[in-house]
Design a protein that fits this description.
437 residues; 0% strand; mainly alpha; 2 domains; elongated; Fumarate Reductase Iron-sulfur Protein, Chain B, domain 2; single chain
């Protein structure tokens, strides 16, 4: 019976990590539904971007208050969870604070003391985040797309973090072995007096309960990530690595269209000539994107990585002037549709069955797409290199080239370019008439 807790712990660990691994496989499968995109260039710059943006949080601190608070939570939560290694060893082998047996008491005390300080800072910072969301109600957290689950999801994460930090400190405060060495209990020594009237047996029960709830809470939190916007904790690293390196104003051209334009502009080309036998003429199945499968896998990775922080929307000039467009909603809608497609595939034994829906119109409206000024403010504002504009432009490309559904003003401009070689409705012969006025 002495081995029962170890067996239960091992089962919980296997189930928790196994379910997480299953969801990671589903996540990768969904991302791979996107179209191929080559991002294998300039590896050194990509590694640098990942180190600076994802690890170094360089873009977060552009808003100093929120950035500093986020760095505290990020650093604290990551470093504190190093202590999970000790918990896993203790849980599997039935030891108690194995670190004390391996490390000098002073070193162990320094580590746990650092963890306690960080835990207290994380707890305080998370409370501040909760106040900003629910009491102060910052405008970017009150948008229409942040009602219901998105709002609750943000709060659930904050509650998770508060409870996990509290359990860690209570676990230390009620561990008499740890408190007696009087090294590392920098914060927990002030919590310990709250339990001074309890017997040794009661303290042991409280300590063990906090220990179990802490590790089980971490496993639950790990598996909650897949269903939460906090998936960015993991995906921020690949997303910043594969982020766009070309100038923000540089758009991707469709190869098939580029080839046709070059053919039209070549005075020596024969437009009626058949392609050479050695040439493989690639004709795209669809111009642009109307559903998630038409987007690139990088677009889909962006969608899963979105933190829903709203920095993109708060910087969007279209949104600020009352237009319907919200770059954050574009990313959330893309992720929601991708999840719907993934569930469709799961329900139909690995095959997608047409459900009569698509990203365009069912999730993202034409009004939203055409409200975009393509200024790249959303791309610049994103703290983890997400590119909402690329999705917008791909869907616009579909509207123009597949449905001929551009706004009248744009259709007039394209007609003028075709007929007059310029956006203006004037014959080329009359273009210099202004000089005579």
């Amino acid at each position: 019976m002495n081995y029962l807790p170890n067996i239960i712990f091992a089962i919980a660990l296997i189930l928790g990590i196994g379910y997480f691994a299953k969801n990671v496989q589903k996540l990768i499968r969904n991302i791979k539904l996107g179209q191929p995109k080559d991002v294998s260039d300039n590896k050194s710059q990509r590694w640098k971007n990942m180190a600076m943006i994802a690890l170094g949080q360089s873009k977060m601190v552009k808003r100093p208050i929120a950035g500093f608070l986020h760095v505290v939570v990020y650093v604290g939560f990551v470093i504190i969870n190093i202590e999970v290694l000790e918990i896993i060893i203790d849980g599997l082998f039935g030891t108690h604070r194995i670190g004390l047996s391996i490390l000098p008491e002073s070193v162990y005390g320094f580590l746990i003391g650092s963890f306690e300080i960080l835990a207290a800072l994380v707890f305080i910072t998370v409370v501040v985040f909760w106040v900003r969301r629910n009491i102060i109600k910052l405008r970017r957290f009150m948008s229409a797309e942040m009602k219901g689950w998105p709002k609750n999801d943000g709060n659930f994460i904050l509650y998770f973090e508060m409870v996990l930090m509290a359990l860690f400190l209570i676990m230390n405060a009620t561990d008499t072995t740890f408190q007696n060495i009087a090294s590392g209990n920098i914060v927990s020594q002030f919590i310990a007096p709250l339990f001074s009237g309890a017997s040794e047996g009661t303290l042991h029960i409280i300590e063990r309960s906090a220990w179990w709830l802490h590790i089980l809470g971490i496993l639950v939190f790990l598996n909650y990530l897949y269903f939460s916007k906090h998936l960015h904790i993991l995906l921020a690293f690949p997303n910043t690595y594969y982020g766009k390196l070309t100038p923000k104003g540089q758009f991707d051209n469709n190869d098939a269209v580029t080839k046709e334009v070059k053919l039209m502009m070549d005075p020596d080309a024969d437009p009626f000539a058949a392609p050479a036998e050695t040439e493989e003429e690639e004709i795209p199945a669809k111009f642009g994107a109307s559903d998630v499968q038409d987007l690139s896998w990088l677009n889909l990775l962006n969608a899963y990585t979105c933190t829903e922080c709203g920095r993109c929307t708060s910087e969007c000039p279209a949104n600020l002037t009352g237009k319907k467009l919200s770059p954050r909603k574009i990313m959330m809608d893309t992720r929601d549709r991708l999840e719907e497609v993934g569930k469709n595939i799961d329900a139909n034994k690995g095959v997608f069955v047409d459900d009569g829906k698509q990203l365009l119109n069912d999730y993202i409206t034409k009004e939203e797409l055409w409200a975009c000024t393509s200024c790249n403010a959303c791309v610049e504002a994103c703290p983890i290199s997400i590119d909402p504009l690329n999705i917008i432009m791909e869907m616009r490309r579909y509207l123009v080239m597949e449905e001929s559904a551009a706004p009248m003003e744009l259709n007039n401009m394209m007609t003028n370019v075709e007929n007059n070689g310029a956006p203006w409705p004037y014959n080329q012969m009359d273009r210099l008439n202004w000089k005579d006025e």
